[in-house]
Structures are given as structure tokens and as C-alpha cells.
Write a structure and sequence with these properties.
Layout: E1 5-9, E2 15-16, E3 19-20, H1 24-33, E4 38-42, H2 49-58, E5 68-70, H3 71-82, E6 87-91, H4 94-102, E7 106-107, E8 114-117, H5 125-136, E9 140-143, E10 149-152, E11 155-158, H6 160-171, E12 176-177, H7 183-193, E13 200-204, H8 207-217, E14 220-224, E15 243-245, H9 253-260, H10 265-269
Parallel strand pairs: 1-4, 1-13, 4-5, 6-7, 6-8, 8-9, 9-12, 13-14, 14-15
Antiparallel strand pairs: 2-3, 10-11
The chain binds magnesium ion.
């Protein structure tokens, strides 16, 4: 019998800011009752894994360290694989610096192997100047992700991609990005759960990260409308999710179990007005 596991984007799927999205607790209880593993997957590199677990618990959701995977972790693991025990100049916050340290990296101010850019609200224009000069001298430019904006309770603020764009424009060097939708992070997350490609369901609220990443890796994809994407927005995308639901708790159990447990009946049953298409490609 095949397994099924879930990669769950956080903001817009689990919560919005500090507010749980309706049905989240029930949805996770359903997954646990079915013994289905899940991993929280975020492109926010600000917080360390432990801090995210603390936030989830504060919101009333049981979570352990091994259920959280961030783009900061993916970036640090990727760099450790490319150049073990390297050095990095970091534009970002604790989550990114911690992940680099855990993976054997030193955070330095001069002559780094890499300039690594993540989410942040505390760095200064002088630090961006420094990053530009280090890249000009040969440091490789790495982005934890290329999200251009980051949602907050007060509205949008510039995301990692917007900061990276300043450095790219100034240097003429294109960054390598590790976070969603990069296959680097999407594949690492699957391996973290110990699942095969056709056993993974990606649930997200953003087309160009969550859904694109899932489509590229051959995962089943679910777009929730509890974030910032509307059905109207879908018309402009060449790729589409396998299922669209108002929120994660509206994902039908028979759809969850259908393909993953070797039966297509559940998939067909999910062909609600919100389901764009019911066929799941062989991968
Ligand atoms: Mg999101």
C-alpha cells in the first residue's frame, strides 16, 4: 500500500499573520487520525525551525522540530553540499544564520564564498552596498527564495526577491535561489518525509512558489483560496493545480487517499466545481 504525505505551506494555508485559518486544527487532526505525515514548508527564512514550532504551539497546533522545513534550512544544506565548511556574508536574520552555523558554515564580513540573502527587516543600505562589492569581487550570490513580497498584518512588505533584485541589478549577477519553487528545496522536503514522488501532496496558496514547485516535481498539488490567490488569478497561469479548495480542511479525504492508496475513485469524487481537473498524471 502506498503512503501519502503532505507538504503544507504556512502563511495563507495554516494561518494568516497571527490568526489560524478556520478548520486548520480539524484538518491536522484528520491527517493524524489517518496516520498521514505532514511537513510545514515555508519560504520565510527569518525564524529558526524551533521558533516556528513555538509559534505553531502558541496557536494551538501540536508540532515538533522535525515537522518544519524552511528555505533557510534548504539553503544551508545546499551550500554545505556544494562547498563544505564554507563562509557566507549574510543579509538576513537569525533563522538563516542559525541554519548556516548548524551546517558547518561561518558567517563573515570579508572575502566570503557566498553572499546569502534572506528575508529581513533589520539590515541597512550599507549592508546591501557591502553585498554588492563582495559579489563584484567574486562571492557567489545565493537567495533563500525569490518571493517579491511578504504578507504582514499591515499589508505587503518587500520580500527576499525584491532585496536580491537590487543586488542583481547593481552587479549584473543573477542569484541562485534555493527556496520554493526550486527543485532543490522541493526535493529535500520530500526526502525529509522519506516519501516517493507520487506519494507527496503539496498544499499552498501561491501559484508561482507552492503550486509551480509541486508541478515541476510531479507532486499532486492543492491550491487553497484562504491566502492571496483567487480563482480569477488562475486564468493567467500556464500550469494549474490538481485541486482547488476554499481552505485546507475542505480537501476531501477520499481525494487524499484515492491516488496515494492506489485507487482513482477518490480523485473523481473530488471533481467539485472548484476542482479544475481530476486526472493525475503518472510520474
Ligand atoms: Mg503562503
Amino acid at each position: 500500500m502506498k503512503q501519502v504525505g503532505f507538504l503544507l505551506d504556512m502563511d495563507g494555508v495554516i494561518y494568516r499573520g497571527d490568526q489560524l485559518i478556520e478548520g486548520t486544527i480539524t484538518f491536522l487532526e484528520r491527517l493524524r487520525a489517518l496516520s498521514l505525515p505532514y511537513l510545514f514548508l515555508t519560504n520565510n527564512s527569518q525564524r529558526a525551525r524551533r521558533d516556528i514550532v513555538a509559534k505553531l504551539r502558541r496557536l494551538g497546533l501540536p508540532a515538533d522540530d522535525h515537522q518544519v522545513f524552511t528555505c533557510a534550512m534548504a539553503t544551508a544544506r545546499f551550500l554545505a553540499g556544494q562547498r563544505p565548511c564554507g563562509t557566507a556574508f549574510v543579509l538576513g536574520e537569525n533563522g538563516l544564520a542559525n541554519a548556516l552555523h548548524v551546517n558547518g558554515y561561518s558567517v563573515v564580513d570579508s572575502d566570503p564564498d557566498y553572499v546569502v540573502v534572506g528575508e529581513g527587516r533589520t539590515f541597512t543600505f550599507e549592508m546591501i552596498e557591502k553585498a554588492v562589492r563582495l559579489v563584484e569581487k567574486g562571492a557567489k550570490l545565493i537567495a533563500t527564495n525569490m518571493d517579491t513580497t511578504c504578507p504582514t498584518d499591515q499589508g505587503l512588505r518587500p520580500g527576499c526577491g525584491a532585496i536580491v533584485a537590487m543586488i542583481e541589478k547593481a552587479t549584473g549577477v543573477e542569484a541562485f535561489s534555493v527556496g520554493k519553487p526550486s527543485p532543490v528545496m522541493m526535493r529535500m522536503a520530500r526526502k525529509e518525509m522519506g516519501l516517493a514522488t507520487d506519494e507527496v501532496v503539496m498544499v499552498g496558496d501561491t501559484m508561482y512558489t507552492d503550486i509551480l514547485g509541486g508541478v515541476q516535481l510531479g507532486y499532486r498539488t492543492v491550491l487553497v483560496l484562504s491566502g492571496h490567490t483567487t480563482e480569477e488569478d488562475l486564468k493567467s497561469y500556464a500550469y494549474q493545480p490538481d485541486l482547488i479548495v476554499p481552505c485546507a480542511n475542505e480537501i476531501p479525504t477520499d481525494w487524499i487517499l484515492g491516488e496515494g492508496r492506489g485507487s482513482s475513485d477518490g480523485i473523481r469524487a473530488a471533481a467539485s466545481p472548484l476542482a479544475l481537473h481530476a486526472e493525475v498524471a503518472e510520474v
